[in-house]
Amino acid sequence: MAGVSSLYMNVYNSYMTSYNTKSLTRYDTHKKSELKSIYNAIVKLNKESPLYKINFSQQTQEYAVELKEGARGLKNVINDLTNGNTEQIFNKKAVFSDNDQVVTAKYIGEDESNDSMIEDFTVEVHKLATPQTNTGKYLTNSNRNLQSGSYAFNIEVNGLDYEFQFGVKEEDANIDVQNKLARLINNANIGLKAQVLTEKTESALQITSLETGEKGEDGLIFRVTDIPEGSRGVVAKFALDNVTESPEDSSFAINGVEKHTHSNTFVAGKVFEITLHGISATGNPAMIGFKTDTEAITEHIETFVSEYNSFLDTVRSYSDVEPRSEKLIQEYTGVAKEYMNDLEAIGLEIMSDGSINIDKALLTEATTDEKTYNETLKGINGFKNGILRKANHALLDPMEYVDKVVLNYKNPGKNFVNPYVTSMYSGMMFNSYC
């Protein structure tokens, strides 16, 4: 079982570090009915699919994962901007901050009828939450503080212990060992970032937590210790346990009331996601509040178009190695051209490569005209729904857009369900480990 667990962890780490994965949102969790619908769609897809042969090169694998991640990001943006009701126009409220250098805000509420009663408020930042930093002792690069052999040490992060083992060769100098330890810690993905600091002929290993804020009784986020047996004092020799910056909580005031959090990003009133970026000037708090409907709809259209363009750029970057990527681009640009007249009427120009350029002045004018407001937005709503259908299809079967050869078709009328198509996508991630 330990071997299987290690296999899954290796695949997970490879996925998280090798690909442009999108951050998770609340729309990545699903109800039973939604999962059942996806399951039924997979069953139908597998039942009708012929047998393919695919060249699972590293580039093909990266392309398929990037494609699915891009489609997921595009779908989540649409969900987010419509508050989960994708049949509506971009109706989600937008939030402003009059000092983005110090504080930014995002709307995360759901009951917009009640949220309209929320008044603007101020945020004054006194101190940002900071991470923990351990900086080892500076050692001469070319010297050798560790003799050749096997070494081990332990890092405890938020109550979880991780044992690290490594070897030192005869030719390894101090800086070689430090670089090796930095790679070891970074590749472990345990919430720490390591780097080697250099000053002239000396270098030191520095470890910084990705988290911020005080944890536990002593406030530390992580601890580096020698293992009683087998470590041979590596922590002491490199001073990996030397805490040079202790983690601290943030300090700020909302409407004059002092608050503290472990992170620089937190939720206020179950409606706003607040992120602190800098320290406020004395007596000059940032104002947070809702934008007007016109400002909100304009901002949401710009966000959607930006994500759409980014997705096409990602797919297009693989055009030299994946010929069928052009099929996907043609499908998406075909949806855009279907609504070309409506899109151009509000300042969205379809370029020769399929991307969309925004004329902000024309878009603002279109969304501020009350007489033609609803008619104007029918086009962008239809375009959005068409792209959502395409994104759902790419999520269900990213292998549709991978170059492949048909080996045989199934017997019409006598088909049976099998997991072949969808297992191709998930299985390719294990190719390097099996």
Structure description:
This protein has 434 residues and is α+β, with helices and mostly antiparallel strands. Helix content is 39%, strand content 23%. The protein folds into 3 domains: 2-90 and 295-433, no CATH class; 95-129 and 249-290, no CATH class; 133-245, Immunoglobulin-like (Sandwich). It has helices spanning 2-18, 32-48, 58-81, 112-115, 174-188, 234-238, 293-316, 325-338, 340-345, 360-368, 373-396, 420-428, and strands at 51-54, 95-97, 103-107, 121-127, 133-135, 139-140, 149-157, 160-168, 192-199, 202-209, 222-226, 243-245, 250-254, 257-261, 265-268, 272-276, 286-290, 348-350, 356-358, 404-408. Strand 13 and strand 14 (257-261) form a beta hairpin.
Quick structural gist:
Helices cover 39% and strands 23% of the residues. With 434 residues, it is of the alpha+beta class. It starts with a helix and ends in a 6-residue tail after the last helix.
